[in-house]
Write a structure and sequence with these properties.
By secondary structure, chain A is mostly helical. Chain A contains 7 helices and no strands. The longest helix of chain A has 26 residues. The chains are: A mainly alpha, B mainly alpha, C mainly alpha.
Chain lengths: 173, 493, 125
């Protein structure tokens, strides 16, 4: 049980770092796919099957394909320069370090946080799709409608920002 | 009429405008703008007769409520959007140049529609009572702005602004969601009243809740443009089109503040968190006042200047936040922090929109956005120059304008709070900021009246459309009248 | 519990192992050839190749993909709706849940009609 947790979280974090380190944008995108898969597996360990499947369908499937399209579209090349901007990297490391220290000190305040491994949910027989559905369409009905408007705005954005120029259809984007 | 219909009306207006844009064969899109302006005006009238009541239908229960504050901020949202549409209409000639040569594909119709949907989001934010509603409506607003900021896609500056806004906005959203998750994890509640109860129950620990609050402040600080989360502001304000700059600086800020006020209230009133929260807020206030005002001094681009001015105003507004602490409340003489902030935001709406209207008209003719481009405006167009003079004077806080009274109210609270808690350093930073403000706002006035008019520049006749003329005069009257009779706004509170 | 997914992990490792070992074996057993930039370049009747080896995609793919993501999200919400509808029918909440989904789909229908009318979905420009 905990072995699988370590495998999948290691997979997720390792490939997450690879996304940043890789110089070729295509490799970065594929590393992100594997990172998402690890995340989906972690959702399964929490008995959140629906979220896990959605994670794979929407993120690994749709969003990543979109990323790959953009990489193809813009014809992004492997970055030539290998030199690091030490100020930016150092700043990032400092912020990250501070955040992790903060997180450890906050989590250490809890009894559960001191344990090596939080117990996983025992009962995996519940139907999480039904539970999600029961919440969304009653208590979170209003939010669903707002989300609809949000998707409408996003559609307008897509159409407007990727509009072709004039009738000649010269793709001057 | 129940107040929750207002957003639905706004949405229906947006759908209609979008339908006309998609299906109409008429090439001219100014009809859409006129429809939007008049529709918003009608909804504003409805808002006045709408009754603030807590009775909302079953599905809205617990997440949405309408009190006088919500109505006030809804009115600000509608009024801002209305003025943005007026600006957009004036800006349309300059706009076409940056989107497409052919009229048909300019996208100006969508440019009029999107603010309507953003307005609905701003109005939902004003009524939000739980963190999920806040998050969803905030995202609606933010995604609308992502599109609007990068709308002029043939302009590199606009695209750069769009990318910066997108990346930093996504980052701040991440912090916000993480903070919300932490708050839910610690308190077990999404709704603010539940959070307040949990905070006072004495069962939760301090460290995690302060951590969660700090994460929330990162997300919200981004929306209200508080230092150090302001880095996007100057570039985005400069890069994007003028009406959207105005929309960002007024609409986004006002809605951000109502959310901020509602979110920090339970934290300030709980003995568990209040001292740390006050410390965080005081720090943000001081750096925002200091940085916003001092960096504004050396700006030459007028949009950049107004961006730093917007940061500085966020600092002045936040000055009243620590004073919402419950122990201080009964000792305060004069309007409460909530009233003062709301008054200031209403005044900020009037004066900022006045300035942007003038700048939009001038820059769409002369195509320049530097302070020097206003040179000789006093001779070229006395009305515009006078409007700008009043707007800028109000931003600086000169007596007889609404800006002065707003600053007066906020300083009143800050000084009384300093007496109460000894936090005089906030007052010191505010005085420093306000006096720096006089200097950089005066630069604009000097350019308009004292600068020698360049011969080629002032040949251009400044034509002002009737609509803009009316709006300028109304705003001008508003800034002066509300400055002389502050009851005009305070009466609503 | 998660132990039941052990077969999945095993299958995963077998699949990866097969791919990796095949590649390794071909490298180990195959003859190593000398290669250089000129040998690796494409041979085109003696002409030196100019330009890109990667094909560039049309912006149309991007528009379709973006719209796909948006409507994908819509379907994500329809799935729990379909699964729970029977329960709601039994509870007598069916009308509310029906209108809830109708509202959501109705708003997205506006988006769809808009995109359709604007020609975002048509392949010919």
């Amino acid at each position: 049980m905990s072995l699988l947790f370590y495998i999948f979280s290691g997979l997720m974090l390792g490939f997450g770092i690879m996304v940043i380190v890789c110089r070729n944008p295509l490799s970065s995108a594929l590393c992100l796919v594997i990172s998402f898969l690890g995340l989906a597996a972690l959702f399964v360990t929490l008995n959140a099957y629906f979220i896990s499947i959605i994670q794979i369908l929407v993120y690994t499937g749709a969003v990543m394909v979109l990323f790959l399209f953009i990489i193809m579209l813009l014809d992004i090349r492997e970055e030539k320069s290998k030199d690091w901007n030490f100020l930016a990297v150092g700043g990032g490391v400092v912020v990250l370090f501070g955040f992790v220290v903060q997180l450890i000190s906050v989590l250490g305040g809890y009894e559960d946080g001191k344990q090596k491994m939080v117990p996983f949910p025992e009962d995996s027989s519940h139907e999480d799709v039904k539970m999600i559905g029961a919440e969304i369409f009653t208590n979170y009905n209003f939010h669903l409608q707002v989300l609809g408007v949000l998707l409408l705005v996003a559609t307008i954005g897509v159409v407007v920002l990727s509009r072709r120029q004039g009738k000649e259809g010269s793709e001057n984007n | 009429m129940p107040a929750y219909y207002l957003e639905i009306l706004i949405l229906l207006l947006g759908f209609t405008m979008l339908g006309i844009e998609a299906f109409s064969s008429n090439r001219s899109r100014s009809g859409i703008a006129v429809l939007g302006i008049s529709g918003l005006f009608v909804v504003l009238l409805f808002l006045i007769i709408a009754v603030p009541s807590s009775e909302v239908p079953y599905d809205y229960w617990g997440i949405y409520h309408v009190d006088k504050w919500a109505l006030f901020y809804k009115a600000i949202a509608i009024l801002t959007t209305l003025l943005v549409l007026v600006l957009a209409k004036d800006f349309s000639s300059a706009f076409k140049k940056y989107t497409s040569q052919s009229n048909e594909f300019s996208g100006i119709g969508e440019y009029y529609c999107l603010p309507i949907f953003v307005c609905a989001g701003l109005m939902w934010m004003a009524s939000a009572k739980d963190l999920i509603t806040i998050f969803v409506s905030l995202e609606l607003v933010t995604i609308g702005f992502y599109v609007l900021v990068s709308f002029m896609r043939r302009n590199v500056g606009s695209l750069e602004a769009g990318v910066k806004y997108l990346v930093l906005g996504a980052l701040s959203t991440g912090f916000l969601v993480y903070g919300i998750a932490w708050i839910f994890g610690v308190t077990g509640h999404f709704d603010l009243s539940g959070i307040a109860e949990a905070l006072n129950s004495g069962e939760i620990e301090k460290k995690p809740i302060i951590f969660a609050f700090a994460l929330l402040m990162v997300g919200l600080g981004f929306k209200v443009a508080a230092v150090p989360f302001h880095i996007w502001v100057p570039d985005v304000y400069q890069g994007t089109s003028m009406p959207i700059t105005a929309f960002l600086s007024v609409g986004s800020k006002a809605a951000g503040f109502i959310v901020l006020l509602r979110v920090i209230e339970p934290f300030l009133n709980s003995p568990l968190t209040s001292s740390s929260v006050i410390l965080i807020l005081s720090f943000l206030v001081c750096v925002t006042l200091f940085f916003g005002n001092l960096v504004a001094i050396k700006q030459t681009n007028i949009k950049r200047l107004l961006a730093y001015s917007s940061i500085a105003h966020a600092g002045f507004l936040m000055m009243a936040l620590p004073a919402m602490e419950s122990g201080f409340h009964s000792k305060l003489i004069g309007p409460s922090p909530m009233e003062s902030i709301s008054f200031y935001l209403a005044g900020y709406l009037l004066m900022t929109m006045l300035c942007f209207l003038v700048i939009t008209i001038v820059s769409s003719l002369t195509d320049g956005e530097n302070i020097d481009d206003l040179r000789g405006l006093g001779a070229r167009s006395p009305l515009l120059a006078f409007a700008m003079l009043v707007g800028v004077a109000s931003l600086a806080g000169i007596p007889l304008t609404v800006g002065f009274f707003g600053k007066f109210l906020l300083f009143n609270i800050a000084i009384q709070y300093a007496v109460f808690s000894g936090s005089w350093y906030i007052v010191a930073f505010a005085v420093l900021g306000a006096s720096a403000g006089f200097y950089y706002y005066f630069k604009i006035i000097r350019a308009m009246y004292c600068g020698g008019a360049e011969q080629d520049g002032d040949q251009l006749a400044l034509t002002i459309s009737t609509l803009s003329r009316v709006v300028i005069i109304v705003l001008l009257a508003g800034v002066i009248l509300c400055g002389v009779f502050p009851k005009l706004i305070l009466g609503f509170l | 519990m998660l132990d039941q997914y052990l077969p999945v992990l095993m299958q995963l490792s077998v699949a990866t192992g097969f791919a990796v070992s095949t590649l390794l074996i071909s490298v180990l057993l195959g003859k190593s050839a000398k290669s250089n930039a000129i040998k690796d370049s494409a041979y085109e009747c003696g002409m030196l190749p100019i330009g890109d080896d990667k094909p560039r995609f049309s912006v149309k793919f991007y528009v379709i993909a973006m719209l796909f993501v948006i409507f994908d999200i819509e379907v994500v919400f329809m799935y729990p709706w379909a699964v729970t509808f029977k329960n709601f029918l039994a509870n007598g909440q069916a009308a509310m849940v029906f209108w809830s989904m109708s509202g959501f789909v109705g708003i997205l229908l506006v988006a769809y009609l808009y995109a359709l009318k604007k020609g975002a979905l048509s392949w010919k420009s």
